[in-house]
Write a structure and sequence with these properties.
This protein has 242 residues and is mainly α. It is built from 14 helices and no strands.
Length: 242
C-alpha cells in the first residue's frame, strides 16, 4: 500500500480495500444510530480515518480526490479530512472545501472535517466574506458547516464581536443548525464570558438555542462554578420563537 514517496497508493479500489479491512459491523450499527440519515457505514473509527487521511495527504492526494467514491459515509468523510490536511495553494483549498460542503448530508460529515480546516486561519478576513452566503443559506447542513467553521476557527480577539453578531442573526431553523448555534454561543462564553453575557441575558435567542447553550456551558469543565450558576438562572421554561 505504500508508494516510494511514503504515501498510500490512492486508487479507489485500494482505499476501499483498506476501509473494508478496518470495518467493524457492530460499530457501524452503533454509529448509524447516532447519525440519522447517514450514508451506509462500514464502521471504521475516526482515528483510523484520520491516520489514513494523513497518509493520503502526504502522497498523491490529487488523484485520490479526483477518483474518490462517495457511496459510503467513511469515503465521504475521508475526502473532507484529506481536503483539510493536504498542502496546496490557499485558493485551491478554499475551492475544494466548497466542493466538500456540497457532499455534507449529516452532522458528522460536517463537524470533523470542518474542525480540521485550519488553513482558513491564514486568511480569516477573506474566509469571513466567503462564509456569509453559507451562514444565511436555506440548507440545514450548509448553515451548520458555516457555524462550526466559526466556532472552530474564528473565536478570537479580532472576530469575537462579529461572531456574537452572527449568533444572533443566524436562524436556528433546523435541529442541527440550532444545536450548532447553541454550541457556538457556549464556546464564545467559555472563551469570552464577559463579551457573551449580554447575548445570553438580552433575550435575542430562541428558547431552544438559549437552553441548549446554557446546558453546554453548565456541562463544561472550562467554566467556573460562579459562571455556571449565572447561566443557570437564564434558563427558560416556555417555548418562545424569535
Amino acid at each position: 500500500m505504500k508508494t516510494e514517496a511514503g504515501g498510500l497508493t490512492v486508487s479507489r479500489a485500494a482505499v476501499r480495500e483498506f476501509l473494508v479491512a478496518h470495518a467493524d459491523a457492530g460499530y457501524a450499527s452503533f454509529s448509524s444510530s447516532l447519525v440519522p440519515g447517514a450514508l451506509p457505514m462500514l464502521g471504521v473509527r475516526l482515528p483510523v480515518l484520520r491516520a489514513l487521511a494523513r497518509e493520503i495527504a502526504a502522497g498523491d492526494w490529487q488523484t485520490y480526490l479526483a477518483e474518490a467514491a462517495g457511496d459510503t459515509f467513511e469515503e465521504v468523510m475521508l475526502q473532507g479530512l484529506v481536503t483539510g490536511m493536504a498542502r496546496m495553494p490557499f485558493d485551491e483549498q478554499m475551492g475544494r472545501m466548497a466542493a466538500y460542503v456540497c457532499k455534507i448530508t449529516d452532522w458528522a460529515l460536517c463537524d470533523s472535517p470542518t474542525m480540521s480546516f485550519k488553513f482558513v486561519r491564514r486568511r480569516r478576513e477573506e474566509v469571513w466574506t466567503f462564509l456569509q452566503p453559507y451562514l444565511y443559506s436555506e440548507g440545514e447542513f450548509t448553515r451548520r458547516f458555516a457555524i462550526v467553521l466559526l466556532l472552530a476557527h474564528f473565536i478570537t480577539d479580532d472576530f469575537i464581536d462579529r461572531v456574537l453578531e452572527a449568533c444572533v442573526a443566524v436562524s436556528s431553523h433546523g435541529y442541527y443548525v440550532m444545536m450548532a448555534r447553541a454550541w457556538l454561543v457556549a464556546e464564545c462564553f467559555i472563551k469570552y464570558p464577559e463579551r457573551t453575557r449580554s447575548l445570553l441575558a438580552g433575550g435575542a435567542l430562541d428558547d431552544a438555542t438559549q437552553n441548549k447553550a446554557i446546558q453546554k456551558i453548565v456541562d463544561s469543565f472550562r467554566v467556573p462554578e460562579g459562571d455556571k450558576n449565572w447561566a443557570r438562572a437564564l434558563r427558560r421554561k416556555a417555548t418562545r420563537r424569535k
